[in-house]
Amino acid sequence: MAVSYGPLSGTNCAERNRGLPGPSLFNNNNKKPEREPTDERNPPSLPSWPIIGSLLSLRSDRAPHVFFQELQEKYGDVYSLMMGSHNVIIVNSHHYAKEVLLKKGKTFAGRPRTVNILTRDGKDNRFSCSRRLCVHRTNHGCNGSAFSRVPVCREASAMCDVLEGTQSVAVDLAPELTRAVTNVVCSLCFSSSYKRGDPEFESMLQYSQGIVDTVAKDSLVDIFPWLQIFPNEDLRILKECVSVRDKLLETKYREHKVSYYSDSVQRDLLDALLRAKRSSENNNTSTQGVGLTDDHLLMTVGDIFGAGVETTTTVLKWSIVYLVHYPEVGTSSCTDMEMSGTGRHPQLSDRGNLPYLAATIREVLRIRPVSPLLIPHVAVADTSIGEYAVKKGARVIVNLWSLHHDQREWKNPDLFDPGESRKTEPGCAVPSASYLPFGAGVRVCLGEALAKMELFLFLSWLLHRFTLEMPAGQPLPSLDGKFGVVLQPQKFKVHAHPRPGWKAKRGGVIENRDSF
Ligand code: HEM
């Protein structure tokens, strides 16, 4: 079940249907001077009708982020539409995006129902923003610490060993990448990593895939909430997957609670959360906000799991797609590695010595943002975006695709170019302000540091050990993404040829493993 998008049409009757005040130039008593025409008027709006909202104007065979970018030409950087009964505001430029995410981040920190269906009882059971950030970032977090580096290197090594065993037969790398990334998250959350074929691990992989496959399709229920009362196969599968996840999380949680005995030993994220819960109970800080319940803790781990696997795996897949399209990019990264003298495997400390690989990762995150519409935000109070009024409850979609392909901000935005044209100015971390692959502000990705570390280590290990090539006679993988929860590349197979000289160095590398 999917929403279809179609040709542009007609003029605006949405404001009338929404019952929003029109752009009246006068105040109530007519005594005060006219308001400025730019003073908080409603954003330009697509036509809409009762019940179906703007659906008729949204039929298109293009993916929503591409279609929303096309609408920008007609309606401007900020416009609104109706999805069923919901007022949705689409933001297409970094100027307005930063107002939503940074300047008014707290006001736009709400999330819609579909995001919340992934919680145990469909309510937003998680911490308030500040509380969650506090727990994640200060106590343990998904940061790029030595703690996280160890499982990443271990998984990169195991993945490369599996690829070496393929004997240059073309393989779909997706399952191995997913396994590797899932194991990193499992290690961080539960201190467990799994062997291939472990039934618990397989069910964990399955439920993650099930959630990714169905959440995208479930979007229609989000638009028309009354559809929930009808039998809905996708919703059934989604609920089943969520319940498998809940059982796994509960088991892990029980095990940790039993074995958790000391505040001084912190093995993983669950330990850190348990410690935060205990300390909030001891200090009775629950009176200052929402207390930490078992559900909060479980859902926080669920969030990390749900958000941390598919995203990172997808960026790795896109990186490989672009590496086989542009083999010279892989060669330049390898030349950097050779120049920096890494006879051993790359380590995190090599990041500064491999600027071309870092630029390649940045460019992949720009050209194919994994979350091209971010996650929808909801205004928790009446507010504004630029000169436009925004009512409490409005959903705000930041079209990252528009930001990352904005002709005003990027030279040849549709061209993959990790080289000169994307070079950063001295003192600048990114080549343009119109670049937010991890979002920004209170709802910024909690795993940004971990994700960047994983991308660097997995890719540098792969490129260090293998040359990636398409099987002879096969077309290059498509650069068109499949839009869903994340923007996925289509399936493809590659040959992973061991690089000449790798085997000769192997003995030294095995010795080095302990130093991860
Ligand atoms: C390359 C990989 C990743 C990318 C590109 C990415 C990107 C994003 C984006 C764009 C958002 C939404 C921001 C918004 O709605 O304003 C997000 C949210 C989130 N990400 Fe990531 N992410 C990645 C990896 C991870 C990892 C590894 C974790 C954790 C282990 C993680 C945890 C989260 C969480 C918990 C949220 C929700 C934040 C909130 O709602 O407050 N992400 N991510």
Write up this protein:
The chain has 516 residues and is of the alpha+beta class. It contains 18 helices and ten strands. The chain has helices spanning 14-18, 64-75, 94-103, 113-116, 129-139, 146-164, 174-190, 199-217, 219-223, 233-259, 269-283, 294-308, 310-325, 327-339, 355-367, 400-404, 448-465, 502-512; strands at residues 78-83, 86-91, 377-378, 383-385, 388-390, 395-398, 466-469, 481-483, 487-489, 495-498. A hairpin with a 3-residue loop joins strand 8 and strand 9. The relative contact order is 0.15. Mean pLDDT is 77; it is low at 1-37, 116-142 and 507-516.
- H/E element sequence: HHEEHHHHHHHHHHHHHEEEEHHEEEEH
Bound molecules: protoporphyrin IX containing FE
Task: Output the structural class.
Answer: alpha+beta
Please list the strands of the largest sheet in the order they lie side by side.
1-2-6-3
Distance between the termini: 46 Å
- Spans of at least 5 consecutive residues whose pLDDT stays below 50 are 1-37, 116-142, 507-516
Region (Disordered): 1-47
Biased composition (Basic and acidic residues): 31-42
Family: Belongs to the cytochrome P450 family.
GO cellular component, one term: endoplasmic reticulum membrane
Brief overview:
This protein is an alpha+beta fold. The protein has helices spanning 14-18, 64-75, 94-103, 113-116, 129-139, 146-164, 174-190, 199-217, 219-223, 233-259, 269-283, 294-308, 310-325, 327-339, 355-367, 400-404, 448-465, 502-512; strands spanning 78-83, 86-91, 377-378, 383-385, 388-390, 395-398, 466-469, 481-483, 487-489, 495-498.
